[in-house]
Amino acid sequence: MKKLNRYSIGVGIAVLIAFMISSCKEFLNPDQEINITEDKLFDDWYEYRSIEMGLYSLQAELVEQLVVLGELRADLMQITDNADADLVEVYNFNVSKENRFASPTNFFKLISACNNFITVLKEKHPEVLDRKSPVTNYDKLYGEALCMRTWAYFNAVRIYGKVPFIPESLTTIDEINAYLNTPGTYIDSVHITYGVDGYTNDTTYNHPIQLEKQFYNQELVIDYFTNELETKVKSVGVNHFIDNFDQTWEVTIWNEYAMHTLLGLMYLTEGDLAKAASHFEKIVYTYSDNYRYQLDNSFGGSNWRNIFNVIDVREHIYTLYFNKSYFQQNELQNYFEPRTPHKYMLKPTKKAVVLWESTFDDYRLSVNQTQPWKTETLFKGIPGDFNRGYGVSYAYLQNGEIISPSLVRSMLYLKSEEDYRTSSLLVEGADTVVWKYSWNKNVYDQDANFIVYRAAGVHLWLAELYVWWRFEQNGVVKEFTSNAVNIVNNGANYSVSDDRLQKGVRGRVGFGGTTDGISVGNINYIMHPYTNEVMGYTDLTGNFLGKQLYLEDQIIDERGRELAFEGERFYDLMRVAKRRNDPAYLAKKVSEKFPAERQSEIYNKLLDENNWYIKYFE
């Protein structure tokens, strides 16, 4: 095997581009004396690997679009005065087809490249279609391509509400554009169907495709592609470690754990909790692979921020790799930083900042069980989640320099003493910024990795479904709500015989204790966000549904603290609102970030679920 730079293979990218646009023509630069024709392509394994890496480069092109659409439409991100017209449209849920974030082109490029690669693999290596044949690297490539295509469709349908189903025979972006722009019936002039026996001329015929019947909504996308992954994939993920001795390659390509995460998320989105759990549990309870995705102290305390500094197989399930040395960069720092030459067009909302700053460590209450209105805060605790929040997920910048954590701690202490005037002076004139893609980066780097899936995210998805999942076992109806709490707080959902010391999502950063962990009971106290004094309480005695809703609210807040700005927030809100059959859930959370005079307008707009989607294909 020849060594390749991750996603950056000069010849490989050129091969991919030519592979997508040519037909029996010479391509690549003849001045380099590299003349490869389509009939000679795929003569050796290196060419397959080159195409594989090229697919990942296309997926990486979607990163800014995914972050903007997944976060700016939700409750934890807003625009600044510097935002350009496209970002303003996204923020206001008024997106035109000309908006660069609305364009499905990069999705179609990825789908067409996957279609092409899948077609070639089925032609050249028909054993990928035989689930009984021994697993080869070609099977693993086939699995990667199927996963990537499924991921593209799933993300697209979450954005647009419906997407055109692109027949596998359409293998170039030009063919896809012609298909989409042709009224009525599109004729695929050369559609070849290959047999499992490997003959390449089994059937050749003109194949009419009815355009009006080819739009899939979310339900159809999930049903079709979960079935495809469940029934067609033999294995996922080529083992590049044997070539480059770099273990992190395993999680920068599609792999078995990433496929299970994708399947679990699709089933969770669809509402099939049992199937979702079956896939998430393959990740959360990983006993056969050194317990790799269980949440111990590997990223405990201040080490949590290293999740965004290095790629580590103990937390990262699937991550898109960037490296400025290979000219692999993204625009995220440009959107978020106020430092020259960046444009600072997006920032955290007040709610996002409060999620971290209103988290108190080790507080204690004087609880009156019979007269809960008399319960008081005995010790307010220490304010601020400084392991996941300040200095890594968000920051205050004055004159381009980050304010020291000690100064921010002083600010929060003053707030807890209700000295708001002095506390505001400490951060006067500061810009509040998203820092997750800038932490440990130089101002010109612009190459933060983008984490598609990671362990804590899957734990929290599993906790979310455990809130609602009820099943019968030996005539007894069982519920997993206690496991949901344990996953978040302290990892007590694991067996006591497990070898690794479990911490839980909050526990590994110091907030999973008796009082500072999440909890749900008959009486649930409402705390002041800055002073941590008891302000009131909700009585859920005898109201199991109310307890489920309350627990789910806490888990979604925890997803905000753990996963803010990673591209999933809007879809978290959509999923919960649909499960509750309550569009007001999403409408309220999102509208609250707008100025008071606009909140009613946005709230009413978002009560209509049609306005949750970009209507590109109307």
Helices and strands in order, then pairings?
Blueprint: H1 10-21, H2 45-60, H3 63-72, E1 77-79, H4 85-91, H5 105-124, H6 137-160, E2 162-164, H7 173-181, E3 185-193, E4 203-210, E5 215-217, H8 218-232, H9 241-244, H10 256-270, H11 273-284, E6 316-320, H12 332-336, E7 346-348, H13 350-357, E8 360-361, E9 364-366, E10 376-379, E11 382-383, E12 394-398, E13 401-402, H14 405-416, H15 420-426, E14 431-434, E15 450-454, H16 455-468, E16 470-473, E17 476-479, H17 481-489, E18 523-527, E19 534-539, H18 544-563, H19 569-580, H20 583-591, H21 596-606
Antiparallel strand pairs: 1-7, 2-5, 3-4, 6-15, 8-11, 9-10, 12-13, 12-14, 16-17, 18-19
Helix pairs in contact: 1-2, 2-5, 2-6, 5-6, 6-8, 8-10, 10-11, 11-16, 14-15, 16-17, 16-18, 19-20, 20-21
Task: Describe the overall structure.
With 618 residues, this protein is of the alpha+beta class. Among the domains are: 135 residues, no CATH class; 109 residues, no CATH class. The protein is 41% helix and 13% strand. It has 21 helices and 19 strands. The radius of gyration is 25 Å and the shape is globular. About 5% of the residues have low confidence.
Question: How would you classify the helix and strand content by structural class?
Answer: alpha+beta
Instruction: Catalogue the unreliable spans.
Output: 21-38, 194-206
Largest sheet: 3 strands, antiparallel
How far apart are the first and last residues' alpha carbons, in Å? 48 Å
Query: How many H/I helices?
Result: 21
Give the overall shape, derived from the CA principal axes: globular
Percentage beta strand: 5-15%
Radius of gyration: 25 Å
Mean pLDDT: 88
- The level of helicity is 40-55%
- How is the largest sheet built, in terms of strand order? 13-12-14
